[in-house]
């Protein structure tokens, strides 16, 4: 402990002594006001009501935001809150020559966004892209920011079916991503691992279960003139325990196995591709398709489900910083297979538009 | 603590394994752990070697990138195969590595400044010239302070030299004694002699060492109306002596001995006075009083075009000895020539489908007597450059991905052709290269320029500021501040205030979800031209003024200033400025004595083509 304090004190002293005067900081403010107007139709299987359900939502988007970029010499910072004033981002950046050190809450290296999906304003989160939220972290950007290495706050989510007395963590979540450009192609490879222990105490006996989760994947972007093709493929173990936001039509979290007195891991595999064409400065057309596969094997019985998703949109820039994005989309949740038994999960279709003004 | 088996699949390590007494021995690693570490370590070493090779090579072989990619996949794979213990060890190693990295990083130079004492100067004159004494002191202090120099304050000096000493020090012994008592590394002392309408400035620089001192004399005869620029030269010479550089005094003496008295420059400029007030003060109108010369922006001539002007340039395209004017909008390139008195439209070019024009420059880089047009456009998410010739009609000579720009060498009539690559998510990518034409007439890469940190490619200019035979690089760098870099890429000088700013920008590159892609501005070139007719070149820069300063997405530039910087060694000082011009200025060029400006009205609307103006001043 004393050694740790000495190291931390040395670190703090080093940083404090290196920071230039902050008197001349520049603040650049921004805001995005967004409304979502969508009509959603859920099939009787998907609605959970036993009948088809049709709803119009006309709401303020939770992804609206207000924020600021701050610059003061080699130190930069950013703060951003949502339209309901929840904290989205707060981080500082120190550029030290060989790279950048980022401290605070930010997007993580395994996030790879390829889409401008308007429905729910979520950019294909849970419908195809790897995303585990904006997280507290210490991140290093090296090799001209091509290499990202981050130590992230550990996600602690216990295995389903296990009554835990305690949880132990010994390491932060660890993520790394490397991006490179090969001519007209941009490639990225990313991965991350997260672990914690679920502890069950019975009397004076303590039993520990390790809950390990990870994500590994690649992404690409290929522009050809006004056409662009983006894609990503990623695999995950226990995505819910990792913090990944994905479809969970079959199990997507580690589960306690009473027979083996152990943990069964859920697996996931996701493919997504987006194709777009910029017709003019004011008009773009974009379409996307994704396949999300969930699977878990418990006591020899496999539970699995596939979700197929697609959308097509036509973003229109009415004026500088004024956008309307009409979109039509559909998700087919397929069948949930438990052993030899299949249950139809239904589908969802939607149409509508996102309205946005940036300032 | 008793632990049970977790029953996890192969990806999860059994806790009981970790609790095995044998495995808990300090420093013990199981073979699987050792293998993983070796694979990871080897990958990193191989990776580092490749990266270092890339860093020293002019060419970047694709295979290196692929190998890095494969190596990283190997790392990812080995991570995936790691046991929990390996993960724990690597994690701890990472923490130690990060802390070591931070602790071992070079700190910003907190080295002690060189201290200099400026002793009172003796005045020899038939009338009191205390204002000259004070003025010279003030000017020398301002020119010698900063950049590693600290001038001892008057307060510390007054108490030491006494009332008599304040009338001036000319003795080397007394100067040395005072300098030692003040703990200074250098002392400057001497005299100013007023004779007729001129002055003789006789200064001595005393350098103190542990084992003695060294004296260097600097003397100048100065006309009254050249007092300030000549004093600046002397200050620069003293500075170079202290820094141990070769003095350029001799070269400076080669300049025109009698300079015209600069009062007006191209009709729209007025002096920045007094005391080198910077542009910020000028903008606020605190110091700078508008003069009749620039109250109205009255150009010698102008051309209105039905498009927002992205860029323009001038050059003799057809080899007839007269310069043509090439004007660029997002969807049109126009060629004007001056066969009679007014400029007349001769030809036009439209982009291909999906292409937007961004920048244009003109220069006879291949030395065939006809200037080429270097046209940069956005094609998809990357920049594409097309080299054209025009002699009544357009002929395409070359086309490549990236940015090409012809830059005038202000020291002569030659042109320098610069190139910067463009990649997915990096519209401006990598180091800037020099280009030239080979024997077959093909544009080929030459040497890479040094890394000019944060430089905006379109603003790069070359000029031998300190007249040592090697040109320095100028341009807008980080935070859009004017920078001077040496040929190694070290920053020699940077301005305090942001310059540039333009409505000509695109959004391109990767962004966080819901965020707009990064804004990529296309600022005007810098001009190196003699604004005031004194025989010395000034650096001319545009500063556009936004309607609202601190709104990131709604920054529309509606007004502007031009600021001309006087060159003193490798430092620049604002010398001339215009008042507020009611346009956003997007580009400028000088052709002989004529200054051309491109202007547009800033607007929020995206509908319509916009309108622009080319105006010139003689």
Please specify the SSE layout and strand pairing.
The complex is a heterodimer of chains A (359) and B (618).
Chain A: H1 2-18, E1 26-42, H2 44-47, E2 53-60, E3 65-72, E4 75-82, E5 87-95, E6 99-106, E7 135-142, E8 147-152, E9 166-168, E10 173-182, E11 185-202, E12 205-224, E13 227-237, H3 239-242, E14 255-257, E15 262-264, E16 266-278, E17 284-298, E18 301-313, E19 316-319, E20 322-332, E21 335-338, E22 341-344, E23 347-358
Antiparallel strand pairs in A: 1-2, 1-3, 1-23, 3-4, 4-5, 5-6, 6-7, 7-8, 8-10, 9-11, 10-11, 11-12, 12-13, 13-16, 14-15, 16-17, 17-18, 18-20, 18-21, 19-20, 20-23, 21-22
Chain B: H1 15-18, H2 21-24, H3 31-56, H4 62-80, H5 84-104, E1 114-118, E2 122-124, H6 130-144, E3 149-151, H7 154-165, H8 172-182, E4 186-195, E5 198-209, E6 212-223, H9 227-243, H10 249-253, E7 270-271, H11 279-284, H12 292-295, E8 301-305, E9 311-315, E10 324-329, E11 332-337, E12 344-349, E13 355-363, E14 372-379, E15 382-390, E16 394-401, E17 403-408, E18 415-423, E19 426-437, E20 443-448, E21 461-463, E22 472-476, E23 481-485, E24 491-498, E25 505-507, E26 519-521, E27 527-529, E28 538-546, E29 557-568, E30 571-577, E31 584-591, E32 594-600, E33 612-617
Parallel strand pairs in B: 1-3, 1-4, 2-4
Antiparallel strand pairs in B: 4-5, 5-6, 7-30, 8-33, 9-10, 10-11, 11-12, 13-14, 14-15, 15-16, 17-18, 18-19, 19-20, 21-22, 22-23, 23-24, 25-26, 27-28, 28-29, 29-30, 31-32, 32-33
The interface involving the most residues is between:
A-B, 93 and 74 residues
Q: Strand content of the residues of chain B, in percent?
A: 35-45%
State the share of residues found in helices of chain A, binned by percent.
under 10%
Q: By helix and strand content of chain B, what is the structural category?
A: alpha+beta
Strand order of the largest sheet of chain A: 1-3-4-5-6-7-8-10-11-12-13-16-17-18-20-23
How does the major sheet of chain A shape up? 16 strands, antiparallel, barrel
Low-confidence stretches of chain A: 15-23
